[in-house]
Amino acid sequence: MCKPKYKRVMLKLSGEALAADKGYGIDFDVTNKIAQEIKALIDMGVEVGAVVGAGNIWRGRSGEGMDRTTADYMGMLATCINALALQDSLENIGVNTRVQTAIEMREVAEPFIRRRAMRHLEKNRVVIFGAGTGNPYFSTDTAAALRAAEIEADVILLAKKVDGVYDKDPHKYSDATKFNKLTYIEVLEKGLQVMDSTATSLCMDNNIPILVFGLDNPENIRKAILGEEIGTLVCKE
Question: pLDDT tens, 138-171?
Fold first, then answer.
């Protein structure tokens, strides 16, 4: 078996990816396939943290006319639904998993405690971080960057519905050009939709590489870990 390129990773999954072609809700065929790929990483000795978005259920900006803070908190709660669904898929195949949330809900998950999260990872447990940062006006991208810095992850694996970073939306423009590698500064200056600017800046300040790839094939997670050339790498230089 090939040696993994990274020892500890932060896997960021978009909520939309969990919905697959349904467009809304959770496609458990998808969560089960993702779980199998995460199990393969654990079997290789990779320590895995994960953050899941909530675009398949609710976005903070979905609540037109609502108070933005209230809408954002609803989005945070929606991430916890996705986190529990992924936890269930993982535990069904024997992967020890913990969900830690930034908003306390002790009946269903642990509160986020950095040292406890680190200990879980060292024991080969997957740690899924729910409820974003616990603050409105911050995306789950920022939560992934923050938690990655806190757990000292080697890389953020950013799994999306597109297979990398393009100069414009490839779903709308047939002449969109894909980037193989970018610097943090290029992402910020070009206004590319990799992660939001807060998350990108946090990764830049802490020198955390971001590997953006498509989740249309869940095996891409394993390919990314083994260092195969997929997607777009965002790094210092």
Answer: 999 999 999 999 999 999 999 887 889 998 888 8
Say if domain 8-235 classifies as CATH 3.40.1160.10: yes
Residues contributing to the annotated binding site: 12-15, 55, 59, 72, 133-140, 166, 169
Residues 101 and 175: their CA atoms lie apart, in Å, by 41
Alpha-carbon distance of 199 to 172, in angstroms, equals 25
73 is written with which tokens?
Answer: 């908190």
What is the residue extent of each domain of the chain? 8-235
Binding residues for ATP: 12-15, 55, 59, 166, 169
- What pTM was estimated for this model as a whole? 0.93
For the annotated binding site for UMP, the residues are 72, 133-140
Q: Where are the beta strands (DSSP E) in 26-96?
A: 47-52
Do the Cβ atoms of 91 and 116 come closer than 8 Å? no
